[in-house]
Design goal:
This protein is α/β, with parallel strands linked by helices. Helix content is 32%, strand content 24%. The structure holds flavin-adenine dinucleotide. Flavin-adenine dinucleotide binds at residues 236-242, 259-262, 266-268, 270-271, 274, 276, 309-310, 338-341, 362, 384, 387-388, 473, 476, 521-523, 529-532, 534.
Amino acid sequence: MSVPLLIAVDDDPDLLRDVERELRNRYEADYRVCCLSSTAEALATLDELATAGEDVALVLAGEVLAGAPGTGFLAEVRRLFPHAQRVLLVGWGHLGDPRTGAAIFEALSRGRMDHYLLRSSRPPDEQFHLAISSFLLAWADARRRAPHSVNVVGESWSGRAYELREVLERCALPHRFLLAGSDEGRALLAGAGPRRFPLLVMPDGNVLEDPSDAEIAKASGTTVEPDGDQYDLVIVGNGPAGLSAAVYGASEGLRTLCIDSGGVGGQATSSSSIRNYLGFPRGVSGGELARRAYEQAWVFGAHFAYMQRVTNLRRERGDIVVGLNTGGVVVGRAVVLAMGASYRRLDVAALEALHGAGVFYGAAASEAPVVSGEEVYVVGGANSAGQAAVHLARYAKRVTLVVRAARLDAGMSHYLVRQIEETPNIEVRAGSAVVGGDGDGWLEHLVLRDRASGEEERVGAYALFLMIGARPHTEWLPPTVERDPDGFVMTGADLSDDALRALGRRPLALETSVPGVLAVGDVRHGSVKRVASAVGEGSIAIQLVHRLLTA
Ligand SMILES: Cc1cc2nc3c(=O)[nH]c(=O)nc-3n(C[C@H](O)[C@H](O)[C@H](O)COP(=O)(O)OP(=O)(O)OC[C@H]3O[C@@H](n4cnc5c(N)ncnc54)[C@H](O)[C@@H]3O)c2cc1C
């Protein structure tokens, strides 16, 4: 693997010298540093590097280059190096200036750059390097080179190897897939003797051969046994809402168990960059947010049970008994339901059969590298579909966004509509639906129908990403937990008169129709379906749990 490059471009020699000093002093052991004083020279160099098959991890550009905005140059970089992190260097005096802020927002939302960064100060400037390290980590994540990555080694992309990748994705664990016969696969397995594929090669060198879900669960967390361990708080679901409840619950002294049928992070792990979460002005990937939240809860003392699905719940002598698909049973004095929601499925049998083999539900972040240079379709008209299309366009030859509504802006934020319009390899097919498809072991074709004329067209397609609305994970709940017609859990003031009568008192804000059971995040009727609101509800729930436990 060639040594990746860090490139800085500035036409002010003093400023360029400062950046060069910082880059060379800190990163030259692991990266090649190349500093250039003009956009023309930089573009020519990038062209040569791309032709030579080199890799560029980071490009830093001054705010103004030869009288033009540096973002114009950064926008060009995407074409040659789609994974390179493109950063605009901003002078201290411009931070807080509304015009500079508006220009940065505009460039970010049009995908012309990835980040901005305050120019370095006198060395050592740890703040500058903290940001540079986070950009390099984002690049490594996108290139599947993140530290402590788990390697999935399989003989093919699909089948159990695909399932294992999905499991790791849902655990927010950095991972990459290697074909056993590839150079890297062979190098990793050198001298290992015959193996049962697929393999999970852990960062510490430990190897699990064709592991079952139960084996992975056991290797990574607590196993809930059938003997009914006691906890103050049992949280069902480790998405942002559940993780927040875990952090606040455990930090406030509650003996807390978090159970998830997958790992940590929930839906958020499929978002490559969450830009609207408080405190992350440069955005944060859902996986990174989940990893941080998990560690926070773990250090406060929360226990985690992975890949164990909660299948039933009942009230018994003032406690809540929670049963799992594994036969495990746990008793909580209070329970927080945080099972979130997932995408609705497309009702096309031929495409269902290709799930994981070119057809993916909401998994754009994890599968994006698979679609490099290919024809990709995304179905959906909401923000998540728009984000997926923009993200996939970095990898794919072309992304076609299939939207049922006649106009894209019917269900999507204005900034995303603009970003899609600005991305040359995204095409929008409004007023259309996917009604069929086929493939021999992997998706090959789709059938698209124009909803107005009824006309159908068969097109070549390598991957289909479906982002078509949410369904709450509540089918297992007993009828005593009141839900709306779509299955979302009713809480507090939304409970019906019947439920209120059964409860016999005014419910707490996030309390369900079963006393001691609360619901937070996307699973809750009327929830906002955002990371911040899920996190907020998770924290509020803990205050309510204290009230329940001391009542
Ligand atoms: C592609 C994408 C991009 C997004 N981008 C943004 C964004 O930029 N900004 C933003 O604010 N929001 C964004 N969202 C929305 C955000 O991710 C969700 O609102 C948030 O994750 C909801 O959190 P939650 O904890 O309520 O549920 P979820 O994240 O859905 O987590 C629920 C968890 O419960 C587990 N679970 C379900 N049933 C069971 C069971 N029976 N037993 C055990 N465990 C169970 C699941 O495995 C899952 O881990 C995005 C969503 C997607 C899909």
